[in-house]
Each structure stands twice: as structure tokens, then as C-alpha cells.
Design goal:
Radius of gyration: 26 Å
Order of helices and strands: HHHHHHHHHHHHHHHHH
Oligomer: single chain
Strand content: under 5%
Number of domains: 1
């Protein structure tokens, strides 16, 4: 039976409506982002007094807002990806929690790292005010463009490294290679290896401890009642020290003895509070790994929220640090970096931009970190979150530069590779009889077809997607040099366009 002309017309209209709706959804996020950038420009123009160079502040405010959106879209995935991938949080819940805690961290404890960047990376002759403004503007725009491209490609990268590359590239364009402190660049390059390796090792060790003490036991519930409070207490103390040294560094900087005391006090409090809660929650659980893993759900959500607060406090300066340098330079008329501060209205642009970028463009990278590298549950995601805090604390104590992005992704790889190793080992132990495990393999009565089948089974047990390892590692390696080249080109272009 053929369709009537009316049915065909209705089908066309329905298809047109669906296409229009899809287009509207795709354009909604860029449209909202554009409205925010215009609002940032208006806000900056109403805040800065009229005078020479005030229009540069407005332009820089738009670039800083653009960078903040990209920080939220890319960097925040490292904190929320494991929680979403393990199903401890829905995507909507993760976006809400991350947006609130990122903005709170940026506004309440936003750090000022632009002085460190300017002093430690560019050590040559001091530039005049116009050169310094152009360098910072080019660095900010170059890093924003690269992070935007990385987000589009689905690669989590370090926004700190992008800003470093931008400052170095623009600085070379302005003053030559002698202006750069190359030993510092070498130290930063070393963090490409240090950060993911430390994150992966700590996460794998924590997962191995949980496997040995809880999930491999016959009576998992009884083991969980003993060890989960201990693990949560350790997490509480570590995060208390993490927040004291990193998340609240702008408000309060305690010394080592006070930091250790804070850790001990919160460890004891965490154990006292968690003991009765775990016992109550475990009363109705089945003696299975899947059910025991739910005991880690609430600690994981708390850890993700605290990581977001600390990230907002520290990394908001990646978005607005160079912008604050531009504002201070224009208002003072010279490029002295020692007196650069982050005014509240500048922090607000960064805080709102990060939260907005997370809400509009963050889900893609959250899924990449949480779902597409390896399969996560609450226990593995907990190991990733705890590893991130431990690695940052250990690196800070040793004076090693590390990237929170590299740490988190390295931790995901670490738990994935450990599970893969354990899975392949268990498969070999099951496949080979006990009495034959110490016999020469050539003596085993195995046909070529059986050997090939065994190899195929082992290949299918690869629990980490190799293509993501290569693509993410490549994005990490090119971040600094690519941002540097792009910033150098933008410096030359801005030098022609700006008086």
C-alpha cells in the first residue's frame, strides 16, 4: 500500500522539525558562551576607569572568559570523570556539584600564580608595559585556543602547561630565546613523566590494598566493616592536608607541623564518624564485591567535590592570572610583576566561566576520562580520587612539579592496567592445570589451535583501550610546544594590530 501525499508531507515536516531541533541544541551552548563573553566585556568596561589602554582590558576580559570556559570544559573532567564512570554520580549531579565547588574554590580561595609564571619563566631583561601586555594577551589566547581544540578532539590536557607554553612562546617572540629560564622548562617537561607515573602507581597500590584486605576475602562484609572506615579515615586526613596546603593556600598557609597535626585530627574524626555508618550500611548488603563497592560511593562523591574546590582555587589563575597581570600593568603603567593581584571581579569572571564551560561543554571529556579509558566502579574511582590527593601532597613535599590532569588520567590508567594484569594472570592460572604449571611449556600437550585460542582470549582481556593511551600521551607532549608556537605567532599579529 503506497503512502498518501499527505503522509509524505507530514513525514517531511516531522523530519524538518527534528533537524531544526538538533541544530538549535547544537547552537545553544556556543550562544550561551557568547552571551557570557559579551557580559564579561561589559563588566570589564564598567569596572575599569577610562584612560589609555582601557580598551585592552575589555579585550583581555573576553579572552580570559574564553579561557575560563575552556578550563571548565577540559580540566574539570579529571575530578568528575571517575565518579560518573563508576555510576556514583549522574552526569547532571556531577555537573551541579562540580560547578558549585569549582566556583566556590575560585572565589573563596583563588590563588595567584601569575607572579610565579612571570618571574620563573621569563628571566631576561624586563619588557616595557606594552610588550608585557601583548605577551600576556597572546599567551592567554594561544592557551585558550589549544585547550579548545584538545576538548574538541576529546583529549584531556593540562591547562597549566598550555599557559606555560603560551608565556614562553610569546616571551621568545618579544625578547628572544635568552629571556626564557630553560632549566624551569626542563623541570616542567619532567612532570610529563612524573605526574602520570606517580598517579598510576599510587592508584594501583591503593586498589591492590583494597583487593587484598576486602574484595578477595571470603567474608567481604566483615572485612569491609574493618577496613572501609580505615580507608575513609585515611582519605579524610589526606584531603584535610591537601586542602590546607593547596585548596586554601591564598587564605592560609600552615607549616609542616600544623599540616601534619591537621591530618591526624581529621583522620581520627573520619574513623570515628565512619565506623557506625559503615556498620549500619553493611547490615543489608550481600556478600558480593558489587554490593561492597557501594560503601565507597559517598566518600567518592565527597572526594570529587573537594578535588573540584581545590582545582577551582588553584587553576582559576590559569584563566585569569595573565588577565590580572594585564589589568595591573595598564593601571600602573609599568610591567613590574611583584605587585600583581587578583581582584574579586577578575576572579568572578574566571569562576563563572569555569562553571559555565563545565556545564556546556564538559560532558564529553567527563565521559572520556570516566568511561572510555577503562571500566570503573566505585572502588576504582575512589582509588583514582585518593591517588590524586596523595600524589599532589607527595610532589609538593619533594618539590616536584606535577599536573593534576596528568595525575588523574595516569591514575585511571594505573587501575586499568592493574586489573588487566590480574585478569590475565588469573586466566593463565585457570587455563594451566596446577600439576603442569612448573613443567616446561614445550612438554605440555597443547595444539597450535588451542594456543591461538588462548592468545585470543588474553588479547580480549585487555581492559585499557590502547588508542586512548597513545592519543592522550601525544596531546600531553605537544601542549607546551604547540601553545608556544601559537603564542609567538599571535604576539606578532597583535603587535601589528595593537598600538
Amino acid at each position: 500500500m503506497t503512502k498518501s501525499a499527505l503522509d509524505k508531507d507530514l513525514q517531511r515536516v516531522s523530519g524538518l522539525e527534528n533537524a531544526t531541533s538538533d541544530l538549535a541544541r547544537r547552537l545553544a551552548a556556543p550562544g550561551i558562551a557568547l552571551v557570557f563573553l559579551l557580559a564579561a566585556a561589559v563588566w570589564a568596561s564598567s569596572t575599569v576607569l577610562d584612560g589609555p589602554g582601557s580598551y585592552l582590558v575589555v579585550i583581555a576580559a573576553v579572552i580570559a572568559g574564553y579561557m575560563a570556559i575552556n578550563v571548565g570544559a577540559n580540566d574539570v573532567a579529571n575530578n568528575m570523570g571517575p565518579a560518573v564512570g563508576s555510576r556514583a554520580l549522574t552526569m547532571t549531579g556531577a555537573l551541579i556539584i562540580a560547578a558549585i565547588f569549582e566556583a566556590a574554590g575560585a572565589l573563596l580561595a583563588g590563588g595567584d600564580v601569575v607572579n610565579t609564571v612571570a618571574r620563573d619563566l621569563l628571566t631576561g631583561p624586563q619588557m616595557d608595559a606594552s610588550q608585557f601586555v601583548t605577551v600576556m594577551m597572546a599567551a592567554l589566547l594561544a592557551s585558550a585556543l589549544w585547550v579548545n581544540l584538545a576538548t574538541y578532539l576529546g583529549a584531556p590536557v593540562s591547562t597549566t602547561h598550555a599557559v606555560v607554553g603560551g608565556v614562553v612562546g610569546a616571551g621568545i617572540a618579544a625578547g628572544g630565546f635568552g629571556i626564557v629560564a630553560w632549566p624551569m622548562i626542563g623541570t616542567i617537561a619532567a612532570s610529563w613523566v612524573i605526574s602520570p607515573v606517580l598517579g598510576g602507581v599510587f592508584a594501583a597500590v591503593i586498589l591492590a590494598v583494597i583487593h587484598r584486605t576486602i574484595t578477595s576475602r571470603i567474608d567481604k562484609i566483615s572485612a569491609a566493616r574493618v577496613w572501609v572506615p580505615i580507608l575513609v579515615a585515611a582519605m579524610t586526613g589526606i584531603f584535610a592536608m591537601y586542602m590546607a596546603t593547596k585548596g586554601l593556600s591564598r587564605i592560609w598557609k600552615p607549616g609542616l607541623p600544623m599540616t601534619l597535626l591537621i591530618g591526624l585530627v581529621f583522620t581520627a574524626l573520619g574513623w570515628i564518624v565512619t565506623m557506625p555508618l559503615v556498620r549500619q550500611q553493611s547490615m543489608y548488603l550481600e556478600n558480593r564485591k558489587k554490593h561492597v563497592a557501594t560503601l565507597f560511593r559517598f566518600p567518592l562523591v565527597v572526594a570529587a567535590a573537594l578535588l573540584s574546590f581545590a582545582h577551582g582555587a588553584n587553576d582559576v589563575a590559569n584563566a585569569v592570572g595573565p588577565f590580572a597581570a594585564i589589568v595591573t600593568t595598564i593601571q600602573s603603567g609599568h610591567s613590574e610583576t611583584a605587585g600583581i593581584t587578583l581582584p574579586l571581579w577578575v576572579l568572578a569572571i574566571g569562576a563563572v566561566g569555569i562553571a559555565l564551560g563545565l556545564a556546556l561543554f564538559g560532558p564529553r571529556l567527563i565521559r572520556t576520562v570516566g568511561e572510555q579509558i577503562t571500566k570503573l566502579n566505585e572502588i576504582r574511582a575512589y582509588c583514582v580520587a585518593l591517588s590524586a590527593a596523595i600524589t599532589v601532597l607527595a610532589a609538593s613535599a619533594l618539590g616536584l612539579p606535577v599536573s593534576s590532569t596528568h595525575i588523574a588520567v595516569g591514575a585511571v590508567f594505573g587501575v586499568g592496567f592493574l586489573r588487566e594484569f590480574q585478569s590475565q594472570r588469573d586466566m593463565i592460572n585457570v587455563a594451566v592445570p596446577v600439576h603442569a604449571r612448573f613443567v616446561d611449556p614445550e612438554m605440555l600437550n597443547t595444539t597450535p589451535e588451542e594456543a591461538l585460542s588462548s592468545e585470543r582470549k588474553l588479547a580480549r582481556r585487555r581492559l585499557v583501550r590502547r588508542q586512548h593511551v597513545l592519543s592522550i600521551a601525544a596531546a600531553w607532549v605537544v601542549t607546551v610546544p604547540l601553545s608556544a608556537v601559537l603564542a609567538a605567532l599571535l604576539y606578532l599579529v597583535l603587535g601589528l594590530l595593537l598600538p
